[in-house]
Amino acid sequence: MNSEVAKRIAQITSELAQAETMGDQSKQDPLVMLKQRELDLRAMDMQRKAQEGIMKMETQQDQFEDRLDFDKVKLETQDEQSDERLEVAREKMKMAAQAKSKKEK
Asked: What is the residue range of 57's domain?
């Protein structure tokens, strides 16, 4: 019987504590609520700034990769042009050598 009474007292005490906690939450100090809201806004702002930073880094990475691609194409074009100039110079040298050999004959 005593153990049943003790269990019931513990149960009622627990229920009262929960009710009191819930009542306290609904009657929270307006200053505490304002500070909590301010903290929430700061956290949201920090998260927004972090997201912006990530997006900025991604944009910079894309720009860097685009610049690398552009430079690569530019170098390839310059290399092709150099090869073509070299080929033209070789052909001119051949023609000059042939013309010289014809004159010597």
From this structure: 2-104
